[in-house]
Design a protein that fits this description.
The protein is about 20% helix and about 35% strand. By secondary structure, it is α+β, with helices and mostly antiparallel strands. The longest helix has 12 residues. It is globular.
Length: about 230
């Protein structure tokens, strides 16, 4: 999980500015920006957008610890080909893309995940997951995870076994044909799928052994957010 406070401190340090001055460049007063830096308040999308516009900060850095800090590092990314020592500019990889939406709200029925397409994404955006042939992508529908993953975000999902999951992992699962995206927790023989939303009407979904209809499709390892 990305530590937003650590990222903000790194951004300020690399800017060469005092924290108060940096906050002013993105339209924030000292106390307001300090609340975000100290992790006392959730960092809103509007502030991320402003840092992108003013300081060339890559928005993905707030969601993927391996993403480049600056947009220019994506545009000018270099990847060494160890077999011939050639350097390729703006390396990209293709991944499986399912043109369906996993629900981040009340579960929705998805009849199948057989109609796969492909999507091309720069390696610099995916960091250590770049080129992973198991990785697949889909979009999120709904607001039950909107503190972390807004509606219509693109998510990268990596297949994983249930015994490899850790508490607080974000996963895509289905119970029957109801696909959904939630935080995962284990409590004895109970599995808890928890929303993370500004809307308090969303509640936990809990299942107990033998988990007959439960299917785990993978762990969300990256999500790409539309800021407008």
């Amino acid at each position: 999980m990305v530590d937003i406070s650590t990222i903000l401190k790194e951004i300020v340090a690399k800017s060469g500015m005092e924290q108060e001055k940096f906050g002013e460049t993105i339209g924030l007063k000292k106390a307001a920006f300090n609340n975000y830096v100290q992790g006392r308040r959730e960092l809103p999308k509007s502030v991320i957008t402003k840092m992108m516009e003013v300081h060339n900060i890559n928005p993905a850095v707030f969601f993927d610890k391996d993403a480049p800090l600056y947009i220019r590092d994506i545009n000018d990314s270099r990847k060494i080909n160890s077999s011939n020592n050639l350097i390729s500019v703006q390396s990209t990889s293709e991944y499986t893309y399912f043109p369906v939406h996993a629900s981040a709200g009340p579960p929705i029925r998805i009849d199948s995940l057989t109609d796969a397409e492909t999507i091309t994404i720069p390696d610099a955006v995916l960091g250590r997951h770049a080129g992973d042939e198991e990785l697949f992508f889909m979009r999120v529908n709904g607001d039950s995870m909107n503190k972390v993953i807004p509606h219509q975000s693109l998510i990268g999902v990596k297949p994983i076994q249930i015994n490899e999951l850790k508490d607080e992992d974000i996963i895509v699962y289905s119970d029957g044909y109801n696909y959904s995206v939630k935080r995962f927790y284990r409590d004895g023989d109970r599995l808890i799928f928890r929303p993370e939303s500004y809307d308090t009407s969303f509640t936990d979904y809990t299942v107990s052994e033998p988990y007959e209809d439960l299917r785990l499709h993978g762990k969300v390892v990256i999500y790409i957010v539309n800021l407008d």
